[in-house]
Amino acid sequence: MFASLAHNVHDVGFFRRSQSVLTVRGDDMVAALGLEAVTLLKVDVEGAELEVLRGFERTLAAHVPFVVFELLPARRDAGDDDSRVKRAAALMDLLGAHGYRFRQIGDDTLGPVQERIDPRAIARPEDANLLAVPRGRDEALPG
């Protein structure tokens, strides 16, 4: 539970043990599997979303899938130099450069379309699930 490949996401000592695992760049796996279409990526990697999506940049550009991911909340009083705030900004920049906009996933609805979501505005961990929507493809989604 709460395993992560990202460094500096959780406080020192948060994890009781570590384990080596094989990792493969997402774009390389898409190519190896010979996938003709990728319509949805679901990324749940406890803080390593930025690294995972960097590994899918060719897929994002070529297939333009919807992306479901988690944005770890940050303290409301966190400054712009806070590691979670900086990582979230980098994630928004990466997806934004591919033409994505964002909607928070609620219990029964999707929030309004936003150009960026600040992790300091996420009140509860259960509100941290987001949908990255390719520009121009959000009008068909329920709200």
UniProtKB/TrEMBL annotation:
Pfam families (UniProt xref): Methyltransf_21
Domain of life: Bacteria
Residue ranges annotated for the Methyltransferase FkbM domain, each copy included: 18-102
Gene3D superfamilies per UniProt: Vaccinia Virus protein VP39
Signal peptide as annotated in the record: none
Stored InterPro entries: FkbM_mtfrase, SAM-dependent_MTase, SAM-dependent_MTases_sf
Protein name: Methyltransferase FkbM domain-containing protein
